[in-house]
Amino acid sequence: MTSGGAQQIRLLVLAGTREARHVVSELSRDQRFDLIASLAGATPSPLPLAAPVHSGGFGGAEGLAQFCRERSIDAIVDITHPFARHISRNAAVASHAAGIPCLAYNRPPWRAKAGDQWREFDSWEEMVANIPAGMRVFLAGGTASIEVFTTRDDIFLCARALNVSSYEDTATTRFLNAMPDADPDAEMALFTKYGIELLCCKNAGGDASVAKIRAARSMGIPIWFLARATAQKDVPNVDFHDNVNSLLQAILKLGAAQ
Question: How far apart are the C-alpha atoms of 138 and 215, rounded to whole Å?
Fold first, then answer.
């Protein structure tokens, strides 16, 4: 209950991004809201959130809908990674099944500037097939992309991701178990160290991993992106936002209605 006696609004925040931490931090100071944050559990040591955390999956859309019913969730707030389309689809389906709204943040992608050498591909397989033999490649596409790239033994591959400690370096591969660096100069030094000629990654947008994009731009290194799946914006119970402040304002309107 709030200090005025009104029932709190219970929100399930699908998190895991920098924007989600910001939104949770802001809402945690507003007594109108009772928060539960959800993390997929893929990151070994996630940064703390200012709310109780549910870690792991829900068992698909049906399981998520049941979770919302059991926990008396009033609304789902989807602030997941732009490539986490599966959980976003589940959130839309579950919110409809549970009869509650879903407010979703759709992070804008990075945009090319004059002089950028950018290409987009619909799959990692298509991207890998187009890499010229002998190219020195830096891969920042997550663990799931590595197996596709290691099928090419005629390129040099430096792959950075979490949970790659099981991979062993070879004469033509280097595996870095690390998060993206926030400093473009550090990323430039890394690219220089390995003589990188091509950056392959997802067009995630945002600020959390943009340093590698700025570094590649400064060094004139081409960037090949995995294209995003098209977000479904015709779902009647989902309120989409391309701006975090706009999303926050929409959530606060729920509180104002109490």
Answer: 12
